[in-house]
Design brief:
Elements lengths: L2 E2 L10 E4 L2 E4 L4 H6 L11 H12 L8 E2 L1 H28 L25 H21 L1 H7 L5 H8 L5 H10 L7 E8 L2 E11 L16 H17 L4 H23 L11 H12 L20 H5 L7 E4 H8 L5 H7 L7 E4 L2 H13 L2 H16 L5 H15 L12
Parallel strand pairs: 1-4, 6-8
Antiparallel strand pairs: 2-3, 5-6, 7-8
C-alpha cells in the first residue's frame, strides 16, 4: 500500500538525477497542468481531476510511506544536507590541524585580535569550531560499529532516571521532559504567546502516544493494530533487559495507560478563549476537504489505516488555548504532582502564566500518574524512553522498531540508511 499526496495546493516536484546527486525540475505552470486528468469532470471528483495524472505517474520510493511535492522537497533537502556533512567530515582533519588555535578550542572572551597577524579571525575560528563539531557528530552517527559495540550503555543514564522516578516524581518528570525531551504523560516547550507575541511562555502539550492517533486506542476497527502494538512493546522491553516473564504484563500496562491518556484527549474541555483565526480556519478547511491521501488498494495488513482523509486520521483541529497561572494549574490538576517543584526543576518558575493546550489531557495525565502502580509507571517510562531513542539504538532494537512502525503501520518496504542519523 502506498499513498500519494495532494498536488492541489502546490505544483508537483519531480526528482531527477544530476551530476552532483539529485535535483528537481522547476515547478512551472506546465508541470501543474500535467497533474490534471482531463477525462474526469471537476464537478464529479475535483480531487481526482486535479491530481489524477500525477498520482498515476509518480512512483513512491520504497523507503517512504507517502509521497507528495512537499515530501520530494524534504527528500531533496536531506540529500543536500547529507552531501554538505560528508564534505565537512572529509575536511575535518584538515580544519582541526590548520595553523593557529585549535578549531575545537574555545576562544577566550576579550582577547585582542590583530588583523595583520597570521591567525584566524574570531569569526573564522568560530566557524571552524562549528564545522569540526558538525563533522564529528556526523561521523559518530554513521559509525554503526561503535553503536553496536556500545550497546545500551549510552541509554543507561536515561533508564536510571526512569528507575529513580519514584523517589521524586516532580524532579524525575522534569528531568525526562527538560533534559531528555521524553514526552511522558505530557510534554513542554517554550515560545511566543499566540495572543501576546511579545511574551514567551511555557507551553504544556499532550505527551507522546505510541500509536498514530487517539482513535487507534478505542475504535474496534483498530483492534488488530492494538494487538500487534502490545506484542511490539513486549519485544522491545525484552530487548532492553526486561525479564520475559514480566514483559507481557508490562506491555499491557503501557497500553492501559496510553488508552486512558488518549481517551481523555478526545473529551476536550471547551476553552474560554478559543484560538481560531482566519488563517487557521482556512488551513483546516483545506486540510479536511482538499489535502487528503489517495491510497492504492492493497491487501497489506496496514492498508486500513490510510482509508480516511489525512486531517481526520491525524486529528487536525483548531488548537485549544488556555492561559493559566501556576496557582490555577495546581488547583485544576494538583493531586499527584507538586507543580511548584516541577516548574522550578524545568527552569520555568519565573513564568507567571502558562499555556495549556489540552486541559482534559493534562488532568487525566496527572490522575494516571497518581493512580498507577510503581510497576505500571516503570514500564510506561521505559517504553517512552525506548520509543524516543529506538531508531538510534543497536540494530536489533532499531530493526524491531522499524518492523512495526515502518513496515506494518506505514507500509514501507525498506529503511533508508540515513534514517538512523
Amino acid at each position: 500500500m502506498w499513498s500519494r499526496g495532494c498536488v492541489c495546493c502546490s505544483p508537483p516536484t519531480r526528482l531527477k538525477p544530476t551530476a552532483t546527486g539529485v535535483g528537481y525540475e522547476s515547478c512551472d505552470p506546465s508541470s501543474a497542468q500535467a497533474a490534471v486528468k482531463p477525462s474526469i469532470r471537476p464537478s464529479a471528483d475535483f480531487y481526482a481531476f486535479a491530481n489524477g495524472s500525477w498520482i498515476e505517474s509518480v512512483t513512491v520510493p520504497p523507503d517512504s510511506p507517502v509521497w507528495s511535492p512537499f515530501a520530494a522537497l524534504q527528500h531533496m533537502t536531506h540529500l543536500r544536507v547529507r552531501m554538505l556533512l560528508n564534505e565537512l567530515a572529509s575536511d575535518a582533519e584538515a580544519v582541526s590541524s590548520s595553523p593557529g588555535p585549535s578549531a575545537t578550542a574555545p576562544l577566550e572572551s576579550g582577547s585582542a585580535y590583530d588583523p595583520d597577524a597570521s591567525q584566524p579571525s574570531p569569526v573564522d575560528a568560530h566557524a571552524d569550531q562549528a564545522r569540526v563539531k558538525l563533522a564529528i557528530f556526523w561521523r559518530c552517527s554513521l559509525d554503526v560499529a561503535a553503536v553496536e559495540e556500545a550497546g545500551l550503555a549510552p541509554l543507561r543514564p536515561l533508564l536510571d532516571t526512569c528507575e529513580a522516578f519514584f523517589v521524586d516524581k516532580a524532579t524525575g518528570l522534569a528531568t525526562l521532559h527538560a533534559r531528555y525531551g521524553i514526552g511522558a504523560f505530557f510534554s513542554i516547550s517554550a515560545g511566543p504567546d499566540d495572543r501576546q507575541s511579545d511574551r514567551c511562555r511555557l507551553r504544556l502539550r499532550p505527551g507522546r502516544l505510541g500509536l498514530p492517533h487517539t482513535s487507534y486506542y478505542v475504535e474496534p476497527e483498530h483492534a488488530e493494530v492494538r494487538q500487534r502494538y502490545v506484542s511490539h512493546v513486549e519485544s522491545m522491553l525484552i530487548l532492553l533487559g526486561e525479564p520475559a516473564a514480566l514483559a507481557a504484563a508490562a506491555a499491557d500496562s503501557v497500553l492501559r495507560i496510553e488508552t486512558e491518556l488518549a481517551s481523555a484527549r478526545r473529551r476536550r474541555v471547551r476553552s474560554t478563549t478559543p484560538l481560531v483565526t482566519g488563517l487557521v480556519d482556512a488551513f483546516l478547511t483545506c486540510a479536511r476537504l482538499c489535502c487528503r491521501w489517495s491510497p492504492e488498494e492493497s491487501s497489506s495488513a496496514s492498508s486500513h489505516s490510510y482509508q480516511r482523509p489525512y486531517a481526520i486520521r491525524t486529528g487536525i483541529s483548531a488548537p485549544e488555548y488556555r492561559r493559566m497561572s501556576a496557582r490555577e494549574l495546581q488547583r485544576h490538576c494538583g493531586e499527584g504532582l507538586e507543580w511548584d517543584r516541577y516548574l522550578d526543576a524545568v527552569g520555568a518558575a519565573a513564568h507567571e502564566e502558562l499555556i495549556v493546550e489540552s486541559l482534559a489531557g493534562l488532568i487525566a495525565a496527572v490522575e494516571v500518574l497518581h493512580s498507577s502502580t510503581a510497576a505500571e509507571l516503570r514500564a510506561y517510562l521505559i517504553w517512552q524512553a525506548a520509543l524516543s531513542c529506538a531508531p538510534h539504538l543497536p540494530r536489533r532494537l532499531a530493526d524491531t522498531h522499524f518492523t512495526f512502525y515502518g513496515r506494518f503501520l506505514n507500509g514501507q518496504q525498506a529503511r533508508c540508511a540515513p534514517s538512523r542519523c
